[in-house]
Amino acid sequence: MKLFAYGTLRRRGRIEALVGRKLGEPEPATLEGYRLYDTGRGYPVILEEAGHRVRGVVWTIEPSDLVHIDHYEGADEDPPYYFRRAVRVRTEGGETEAFVYVGNPEAFDTLTPIEA
User: Fold this and answer.
1) Superfamily of chain region 2-113
2) Where are the domains positioned within the chain?
3) Which runs of consecutive H residues, i.e. helices, occur in 1-116?
4) 2-43 pLDDT per residue, tens
5) How would you write the chain as a 3-class SS string?
6) Cβ distance 106 to 10 under 8 Å?
7) Is the pTM of this model over 0.85?
8) Whole-number mean pLDDT of the chain?
């Protein structure tokens, strides 16, 4: 299973600490139809927005890893900070399906677009 990461989960140390093991090399990837926003809290979110794209990496993870990543991303909070979604991302090897964490605009006071 694949995870598209565009923020703090791009860092090997962070994601490996969450899943509790070493991961293989991530693959550069692009997600079309989303835009990156600064939350003012030291980490970004993405929101669906036509005409934009987000660059990141794709990690290969196990299904059991999602509970730890969901908790880290606040997907289990009320209201959730992020929603986990299945998307199609483009890599050098072609398109692949991956999960991504999309921001919940209601959970943030300020969202400022980050220009690529």
Assistant:
1) Gamma-glutamyl cyclotransferase-like (3.10.490.10)
2) 2-113
3) 12-19, 66-72
4) 999 999 999 999 999 999 999 999 999 999 999 999 999 999
5) CEEEECCHHHCHHHHHHHHCCCCCCCEEEEEEEEEEEECCCCCEEEEEEEEEEEEEEEEECCHHHHHHHHHHCCCCCCCCCEEEEEEEEEECCEEEEEEEEEECHHHCCCCEECCC
6) no
7) yes
8) 96
